[in-house]
Structures are given as structure tokens and as C-alpha cells.
Write a structure and sequence with these properties.
- This protein is of the alpha/beta class.
- The protein has one domain: 3-Layer(aba) Sandwich (Rossmann fold).
- 36% of the residues lie in helices and 30% in strands.
- Strands 1-6-5-4-2-3 form a six-stranded mixed sheet.
- It starts with a helix and ends in a 7-residue tail after the last helix.
């Protein structure tokens, strides 16, 4: 019985450790809206627009989005080849850029805010209690020694983005999503995670279909 308890607690400790590591950075879609009148509409060719202060991040986002769409069999074009750096992105410039092309939808992603979030973390100085399970009076002092260790506060960036999908023919907003990335290590990390989540939701709602 004692052996089984040791095994269970060892596995539990490993799971807790993995959860803490894997959840240090994450991107989640916090809200999604879709025009119900567009249910059943499927788009086949996209223009990808990333609005960013740094041109490098714009290109990184657009290329990653186009690459992942291509992997699903959906056509797209990146805007930085059509709307070069310094070009105002508005109705007229976008309409001129896609004139004569088969693009039927435009996806635009922009930064909403970068907030700070402070998190209290309990001490994780866990030491498996091997040898302490033989009695209550040896186990309790060992566990009590780290359970009551003081925790600490950490402050992290929270990146909030908005992604919108517009229909070219009607110029109407069809789909919109807000995302939240907690403590990202790089812009690439946010982009990779966001693009996967956006494409997944668009597929689930039937707005794009894999070939």
C-alpha cells in the first residue's frame, strides 16, 4: 500500500511540474463573433493583413498565416507585397491592391493592448517525501516545512489582439475574434499560436474548407 502511495505521489508531482512549465506561456481566444446571416458561406482566397509597428512582425504574421492556410489547401496572399511599407491601409488602397484578383475575403489582425498582469505563485520547492510515509509524526513536519514557505509575485505581459474577417463582395464584417497571450517569450510565439487557433475556428464555423 505504501509503495502504491509513493508511486501515485511521484506521478502527481511530475504532472504538477509539467503543468506549471507548459502553462507559463499560452494564447487563448477569449471571444468570437460571427454574422449569423453568413452561415454557410465559405471563402476560398484570402488577403492577409497584419497591422504592426514593426515591419518585421507584420511580415512574420502574414507569412505564417499564409503558410498555414496553404497547408489546409486554402489560397491566400500576403499584403506586404501589395501594400508596401508606409502605404496607408484603408478601403481604397486595399480595393486597388486586390482588383482583378480572385480574393474573396480579407483577414486583418491588429494589436489592441499590451497589459501587465501580476500573479502570486506559491512556493514550488516540493521534495518527494520518500521515507516519511511510515508515520504521521515524520510525514507532517516534512510537508509542513514547504507548504508554509512564502510565495512570490511575478509580473508578465499580456498581449491582446483582434482578428477580423471581411467579405470582399459586401465589404461587411463576417467574423471577429479577440485573443489573449500570457507572458509570451517572442512575437513569433504569439503569431504561431494565434494563427493555429484562428484557422481552427474558421474551419469549425465552415468559413474555410480544406481541400
Amino acid at each position: 500500500m505504501k509503495s502504491n502511495i509513493r508511486t501515485i505521489l511521484t506521478i502527481f508531482a511530475a504532472v504538477i511540474s509539467f503543468t506549471v512549465i507548459s502553462s507559463c506561456t499560452n494564447t487563448k481566444v477569449t471571444s468570437v463573433w460571427m454574422d449569423s446571416k453568413k452561415a454557410g458561406t465559405t471563402f476560398k482566397d484570402f488577403l492577409i493583413i497584419g497591422i504592426a509597428e514593426e515591419e518585421h512582425n507584420r511580415r512574420l504574421f502574414e507569412e505564417q498565416f499564409a503558410t498555414q492556410l496553404k497547408a489546409t489547401g486554402v489560397n491566400s496572399e500576403v499584403s506586404y507585397t501589395l501594400l508596401t511599407q508606409g502605404t496607408a491601409i484603408n478601403r481604397d488602397t486595399v480595393a486597388a491592391a486586390i482588383k482583378g484578383k480572385e480574393i474573396d475575403a480579407v483577414i486583418v489582425t491588429h494589436l489592441v493592448a499590451v497589459d501587465k498582469e501580476t500573479v502570486y505563485r506559491q512556493s514550488m520547492d516540493y521534495r518527494p517525501a520518500y521515507g516519511y510515509y511510515d508515520g504521521l509524526y515524520s510525514y507532517y513536519p516534512h510537508v509542513n516545512s514547504y507548504v508554509h514557505q512564502p510565495g512570490y509575485y511575478t509580473t508578465h505581459d499580456v498581449v491582446k489582439l483582434e482578428t477580423n474577417l471581411y467579405e470582399v463582395a459586401s465589404e461587411e464584417l463576417v467574423w471577429s475574434a479577440q485573443s489573449r497571450s500570457f507572458a509570451p517569450e517572442s512575437a513569433k510565439e504569439v503569431i504561431d499560436d494565434l494563427v493555429k487557433l484562428v484557422i481552427k475556428d474558421l474551419q469549425e464555423k465552415g468559413l474555410i474548407k480544406s481541400k
